């Protein structure tokens, strides 16, 4: 079983996704096959977030 968490901003947009591993949560790459069927991550309006990148 794989647990994937969707990170939602207060405005309802998707910031990104985390997958739980034995070592803790790991940020998923936007092109990861596990994300097929999930809504894409969207950048913040101010450009402070790049999907797959760190803030």
Can you walk me through this structure?
By secondary structure, the protein is mostly beta strands. The protein has a domain at 3-32. Helix content is 0%, strand content 31%. The chain contains no helices and three strands. It has strands spanning 4-8, 14-21, 24-27. It has a three-stranded antiparallel β-sheet, with no helix packed on it. The chain is globular and about 30 Å long. The mean pLDDT is 78. Residues 14-55 are annotated as: Disordered.
Which secondary-structure class do the elements indicate?
A: mainly beta
What proportion strand? 25-35%
Report the major sheet: 3 strands, antiparallel
- How many angstroms separate the termini? 29 Å
Question: What general outline do the C-alpha atoms trace?
Answer: globular
Name the helix and strand elements from N-terminus to C-terminus, one letter apiece. Answer: EEE
The whole-angstrom Rg is: 11 Å
| Poorly predicted regions | none
What multimeric state do the chains show?
Answer: single chain
Number of strands: 3
The largest sheet has its strands arranged as 1-2-3
* Number of continuous helical runs: 0
Mean pLDDT: 78
Q: Which percent range fits the helix content?
A: under 10%
């Amino acid at each position: 079983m794989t647990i994937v968490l969707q990170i939602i901003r207060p405005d309802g947009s998707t910031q990104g996704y985390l997958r739980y591993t034995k070592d803790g949560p790991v940020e998923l790459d936007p092109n990861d096959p596990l994300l097929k069927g999930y809504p894409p991550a969207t950048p913040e309006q101010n450009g402070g977030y790049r999907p797959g990148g760190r803030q």
